[in-house]
């Protein structure tokens, strides 16, 4: 009996190792797809549910992802735009009427390293669904992640088609602080319309958003003229 238990634990352990290796291989190929020196674009939809098993969407918004052959990336999620070019990182919040300028983030397009995630999560399931893989990651005890579980669906072309995040922290959905409405929500992100068509070059040009005068004053584009400027560039200090 004791020998059988040892064999069972050994088989379970080697299966976990095999899963880890296979998941690592899949994620490495995903990273390669996103970091190829080719254009990439797709659409996203975000849906927030109050509870893990809720059917009713509480909040939803659309997203866009554009990447050029130089691995410069532009994204729009709801009313927030983000640009990471070779010269600058921009975050534009339209509700807050603010434009944040920072130094560019290296490897922004293809930074898909599994190691930090595996340090915080364990692989619960790795399932081949014929047209896509489904990977279920569960947060380890005392993990700093705000999620208890993450489910990722990856196409056989190594592109992410869906992500589901199960929150481990309570979110108050009430707009009246006197009547709290606490829940553990679920966020679903679905990506569609993947293609490698070229993207308009002006999207990745910082001059589309602002220019700098001879006196190094930032002049915002007309549509952003009344926005607050937050310049966090190290090179400007």
From TrEMBL:
The lineage of its organism: Bacteria, Pseudomonadati, Bacteroidota, Flavobacteriia, Flavobacteriales. Keywords: Signal. Residues 1-20 form the signal peptide. This is GLPGLI family protein. The keyword Signal applies. It comes from Flavobacterium cupreum.
């Amino acid at each position: 009996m004791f020998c059988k238990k040892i064999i069972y634990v050994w088989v379970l352990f080697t299966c976990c190792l095999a899963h880890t290796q296979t998941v690592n291989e899949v994620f490495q190929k995903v990273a390669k797809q996103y970091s190829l020196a080719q254009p990439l674009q797709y659409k996203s939809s975000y849906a927030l549910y109050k509870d893990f098993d809720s059917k009713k969407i509480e909040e939803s918004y659309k997203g866009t992802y554009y990447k050029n052959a130089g691995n410069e990336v532009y994204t729009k999620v709801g009313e927030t735009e983000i640009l990471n070019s070779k010269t600058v990182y921009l975050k534009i919040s339209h509700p807050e009427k603010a434009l944040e300028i920072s130094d560019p983030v290296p490897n922004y397009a293809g930074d898909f390293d599994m190691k930090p995630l595996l340090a915080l999560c364990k692989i619960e399931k790795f399932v081949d669904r014929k047209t896509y893989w489904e990977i279920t990651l569960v947060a380890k005890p005392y993990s700093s992640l705000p999620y208890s579980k993450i489910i990722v669906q990856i196409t056989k072309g190594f592109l992410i088609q869906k992500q589901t995040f199960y929150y481990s922290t309570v979110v108050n959905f009430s707009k009246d602080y006197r009547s709290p409405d606490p829940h553990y929500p679920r966020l679903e992100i679905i990506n569609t319309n993947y293609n490698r068509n070229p993207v308009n070059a002006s999207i990745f040009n910082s001059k589309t958003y602002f220019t700098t005068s001879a006196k190094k004053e930032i002049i915002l584009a007309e549509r952003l003229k009344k926005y607050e400027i937050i310049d966090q560039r190290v090179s400007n200090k």
